[in-house]
Design a protein that fits this description.
heterodimer, A: 345 residues, mainly alpha, D-Maltodextrin-Binding Protein, domain 2, 2 domains, four-stranded mixed β-sheet, 6% strand, B: 312 residues, alpha/beta, Alpha-Beta Plaits, four-stranded antiparallel β-sheet
């Protein structure tokens, strides 16, 4: 049962407080946009760098160099034997070719550019020597948006924003009120605690909407991102994330008596997800042993779901497991928080 | 005579084995202003928070207007206006917005504009709370407790840290509320506040009521109502006049000495003073300063506990 007058006044008060706090306006709205634009520019798609190949001195060297230079992105040069070995060791060249009766390739299987150079160089030299490929091929070079770094990044930043907004918005705000004894003052009145919490959560959801639209607009307009999924699905996933983190924030705030405590606690909770949950780079990069733990983290579930919907246009049903993970974290946190929460210290 | 608040055998023990309140009984009548007077740590705030329903008692009973906490919570909260010690309201809300917020919690709130007039904050209606002075903030805090149109107002140390003018303004607000038929329970460690505002005062120390009555009754219990205070020109030469028979001076009831300041409780100054001067002259003792004043609740507290209300 919602007491609408109290609820709307509480929501109004919260909205006023937020909009009159310049720091909030910055961190919630400008910071994610700035971050997206900065990282998007830094990691923008550029034409591939040249891959340097050293060809050791030999009567055939010049011919080899010409053949290799005809196969971009290879860039070949004739270099003395010791020089070549040294430059290879220092990583300045990806491959050393020793022409002769039997061609010798020095490469490093642990370096992707070295593997690439080996493959391209061998193909180029074999073809130049007259190899005929039996299968006719037609190469299609495609650079499509959707696979760029910025496409990967924007949903990740949205997830990050939803997490930090939910945690700080709920957790910090509540402890601040507790410290000021405002919480105690409020529960001394007939105000219902449910109205109070509902107003806080509603405020969070409104901000969530703004954050989603803002980041997607930046992606679309500045980076020509293609948003495959429907806005409705994106909003549902984002709402699930926002609510889940609001619950976790509420739990963190249940007993904290000082601002330092809640700050420390929330950093402790957010830091593993900041690193592991695939905001800036794919979580798959972590060892297989860690994957089960990583996948059940709420931010990982949120980022995966966001990417799935935004970049692949997948349906909400396909996100069922991820939404379940978010719902579980949120519900358990919320229920625990209600039992533990100190309204009157 | 209707009872607004009734406490019987109130006891509160905190987890760290501290007994903040030990067996407290009191009754507050409707329409009176009842004061809890005592030093810091006496248990005043604990007691008032139990009556306000913010704390639960370890033992004992509390009834407010015949209702009990735990059974009639919703009704009670509608009837009470509570002003806590040191609450900081949201700084970025305006005065009017804050009052409207609190008004929205009550079934039958007072008009926020009227309450603002009563606490004289009308011209600050659109000001941010963070920009108010200490006195204005405190008046706003009281306004927030008045906006529910309460029958009983609780004020916990309402004028601590305020300048004299703000204190007087706040006292006027309390008197106005009383004139309109409200009941007030306040805690304070200022004896002038207790004397001027309260119809009855309970003196609290270490979790117990050690005296209860109107301010006049309590002062009367001293046995004498005048205090003569003096200091000596050469205190080192005469360290303990009380031991030398100072109490023998006519109508002197008690002698007290603290840091060289003597305070005599005296029944009839017009007889005691000349006798005192003779007594000092006989012993060749010179006075540095002398003053007389009326006895206060502070003196009552010192007599009962040997300590002052405010540890300076």
């Amino acid at each position: 049962m919602i007491h609408w007058r109290a609820y709307s006044q509480l929501l109004l008060a919260r909205s006023r407080e937020l909009s009159r706090e310049p720091e909030v306006v910055f961190w919630v709205f400008f910071f994610p946009v700035l971050l997206a634009v900065a990282l998007g520019i830094a990691f923008r798609n550029k034409p591939p760098d040249k891959v340097d190949v050293a060809v050791v001195e030999h009567p055939n060297a010049a011919r080899v160099v010409r053949a290799l230079n005809a196969a971009p992105p290879l860039a070949a040069e004739v270099i003395g034997t010791e020089d070549a070995a040294r430059q290879f060791r220092l990583g300045k060249v990806a491959l050393v070719v020793y022409p002769g009766q039997v061609y010798s390739y020095r490469y490093d299987p642990n370096r992707p550019d070295s593997m690439l150079a080996l493959s391209l160089a061998d193909a180029a030299l074999q073809k130049a020597a007259g190899r005929a490929d039996p299968i006719r091929i037609h190469e299609q070079a495609v650079t499509e948006p959707g696979a760029r770094y910025i496409d990967f990044l924007i949903p990740g930043l949205l997830g990050l924003n939803l997490m930090s907004g939910g945690m700080w918005g709920m957790g910090f705000a509540l402890v601040d009120m507790r410290v000021k004894k405002l919480l105690k003052r409020l529960v001394a009145t007939p105000m219902r605690r449910s109205d109070f919490l509902l107003a806080l959560v509603s405020s969070r959801l409104i901000l969530m909407l703004v954050e989603v639209i803002l980041l997607l607009l930046v992606g679309r307009l500045v980076f020509k991102m293609v948003i495959q999924g429907s806005l409705g699905s994106i909003i549902v996933v984002s709402a699930a994330g926002a609510l889940s983190f609001a619950g976790i924030g509420l739990l963190c705030a249940s007993r904290a008596q000082k601002i330092e405590t809640i700050s420390g606690l929330m950093n402790l909770v957010m830091l593993p997800m900041f690193v592991l949950s695939g905001i800036f780079f794919s979580a798959d990069r972590f060892p297989a042993a860690m994957q089960p733990f990583i996948r059940i983290l709420p931010l990982t579930a949120l980022n995966d779901a966001l990417r799935s919907v935004i970049l692949e246009g997948a349906s909400l049903e396909a996100q069922a497991l991820r939404l379940l993970i978010l719902a579980a974290w949120g519900a358990v946190s919320f229920l625990l928080a209600l039992r533990l929460f100190r309204w009157v210290n | 005579m209707c009872v607004a608040v009734r406490c019987a055998g109130l006891h509160k023990r905190y987890d760290n084995k501290v007994d903040a309140v030990r067996g407290l009984d009191l009754e507050v009548e409707q329409g009176e202003c009842f004061g809890l007077l005592g030093p810091n740590g006496a248990g005043k705030t604990t007691t008032i928070e139990i009556i306000e329903g913010l704390l639960s008692a370890t033992a004992g009973e509390v009834e407010v207007f015949g209702k009990r906490w735990g059974r009639d919570n919703d009704e009670l909260r509608e009837l009470l206006g509570i002003c806590l010690q040191e609450t900081r309201l949201a700084e970025k809300l305006k005065v009017r917005e804050t009052l409207e917020l609190f008004a929205s919690f009550y079934r039958r709130p007072a008009d926020p504009a009227r309450v603002m007039r009563e606490v004289e904050l009308t011209e600050k209606a659109e000001a941010w709370v963070g920009k108010l002075s200490g006195g204005q903030r405190q008046r706003l805090a009281v306004a927030c407790s008045l906006v529910g149109d309460p029958r009983l107002l609780f004020l916990d140390e309402p004028t601590t840290g305020l300048d004299p003018q703000s204190r007087r303004q706040l006292w006027d607000i309390v008197r106005k509320f009383k004139r309109q038929g409200g009941t007030v329970v306040l805690t304070t460690h200022y004896m002038d506040e207790a004397e001027r505002l309260c119809d009855r005062v309970a003196v609290i120390d270490h979790g117990r009521i050690i005296a209860l009555g109107t301010p006049r009754e309590l002062i009367h219990s001293l046995g004498a109502e005048h205090i003569v205070e003096f200091t000596l020109a050469d205190p080192a030469a005469f360290p303990d006049l009380g031991g030398d028979g100072l109490a023998a001076v006519p109508t002197v009831l008690s002698v007290r000495q603290e840091d060289g300041l003597y305070a005599l409780t005296v029944g009839e100054p017009h007889r005691a003073l000349p006798a005192l001067f003779d007594w000092l002259e006989q012993r060749g003792i010179e006075l540095a300063r002398l003053s007389t004043r009326h006895a206060s609740l502070e003196d009552v507290f010192v007599k009962l506990t040997g300590r002052h209300l405010r540890e300076e």
